[in-house]
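FAQ
Q: What does a multi-component entry look like?
A: The components come first, one per line:
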Amino acid sequence: METGFFDLLHGFQIALEPNNLLWCFVGVLVGNIVGVLPGMGVLSAISILLPITFGMKPVAAVLMLSGIYYGAQYGGAICSILLNLPCHPPHAVTCLDGFPLTKQGRGGVALGITMMGSAFGAAFGILQMIFFAPLVAKAALQFGPSEICMLMMLGLLTGSTLSKGSPLKGVAMTVLGLLLSTVGTDLESGAERMTFDLTDLSDGVELVSLSLGFFGIAEFIRSVNNTAPLNLAYAKVSMADMRPSKAEMKTAAFPILRGTIIGSLCACIPGTGPTIASFVAYATEKKVSKTPEKFGHGSIAGVAAPEASTHSAVQGDFIPTMSLGIPGDAVMALLLGALMIQGIAPGPQLITQHPDIFWGLIASFWIGNLILLVLNVPMIGIWVKLLSVPYKYLYPSAILFICVGVFAARHSMFDVGTTLFFGLAGYALLKLKFEPAPILLGFVLGRHFEESFRRALLLSRGDLMVFVERPLSAFFLFLCILLVGSQIYFYLRRTRAKLA
Amino acid sequence: MAASGKQTDYLAGAVMVLIGAGAVYTCTQYRMGTLTSMGPGFFPTVLGVILILLGLAIALVGTGQAEESPMAVLKHHASDRFDLRGWACIICAPIAFILLAEHLGFLAASFSSVLIAAVGDRTATIKGSLILAAGMTTFALVLFVYILHIEIPIVRFG
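Then the predicted structure of the entire assembly, as tokens:
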């Protein structure tokens, strides 16, 4: 514990270096802007800025990219509460009570409560990371290739089955992502595969073009001329409106606490993340409330709990990513991809081998959240103004940024072309009701997964039983089977209920 | 294009089967190897087979997506219809960027790609789109070329 404290102090030293502080600020600022702008996604924002980080030091790169992620959560709440626009999935549920509050003229209070809940939830999430991530990593250091392989399989399965949409389709998307990761040069034999004889593909598919195709171009094609009209009538808030009364703070206190705990629990299960956390928190709050009829008509608790849970889940999301090298969702997959591009192998050894990254990141969470509070409370007026930037100006600018960003990643126009290809493919998949996020999960983990699978079987001389004979790997495999089994069980129960 | 849930499932499953079969077919030209020492074709072939099976499951068992999930109530999109003008413009914008950046340089590429993308919106005006294109080009020039030093010729001929 003692060492943990000094590590954290060291982390602050790193995060407070002017260069790192600047990038942390840039990250949370961009995140906040992206969160407020209706129709912009966190994934595309991170991907656009990813190529810029190639020339930066790993610490600065990670601080900035993570800053975008949690910064966007602050902005997303403003968008949900004042405009009734669920542009960021974790904040969708906040609309239900946030917007009615706004209509009653209490939007400022809703935002104030949100900020309090966010800060509390985030602080709890960061503490959780400080205590748990090193423990988890320590336990995971003893894993051999077969354990790592099974753990990754578990991560991929939870990531694809527990997120939005049909579990079957989610798994299909993960497998598609794994398949895309095999494009390029085979790491052991050096042979080129799945490249269709295109030399530009011999280094594999570029992560940036994959994610900007699926989450940028495809999303724009779907949204153009297709967005819900903005209702700006109520979007007027000043800082003075944001101060909640004593009574309102009292009603919000326990929902914030409950939301925070739900969020941190959800963060422990890979694949659930902030969106699920916010829905669970809302449902729980409605159940325990003495006035459930108020929900949906502007209940303070209905805003406080999901927002607090989102923020604690967002911070907790970093635990499996940083301690095991297994991302819980697409955003974390991108972050992991950024680390890999920097030449840092993610996994349990990250905390000991690169303590500057891990502890610097944690310290930057504290600093970043503080910056966000300063940005959001006194400057709320500016953010509210940003809400009215129409989509028709946003997406053309974003397309330009995507083109330049993808080009900059490898100085290759071919990659801009593949981005367009993935955009079209992504749009087709969206039309077929696939949720493309797990593709990124599979793609980022793919190479590592194949490598550990091959190594495990090499060590066991081709005996598949190695996955069952080693107790921990068998345990992870058992969890995988349990997960798949429960999905089948729920499916059967649903169809039986329909027949009856 | 209002496909019912069942039709979407059939189509979605078929697409997955096709991609999986394509992967398996492509992998026939690579060495499979044995379990102890796998060749480059092993892993993708296994994935292809799994994808085929998943595709069959999606098509035959279905995903039951006809029922509305609680999240479906909150949607950012007004409808899910297909918009040809927006679609065409968004596709043409990166193509214009690729072609013009190679031949006329960054300024022309940036200006035209923003302009083309902007007119995809049905409420866009010519004047507004031109201003947006000019503004974004200036901004991108300063940010990418002067601040971030991305190596791309600003103006070139041929």
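Q: Is there any commentary attached?
A: Sometimes. For this entry: Residues 83 and 120 of chain B are 9 Å apart (CA to CA).
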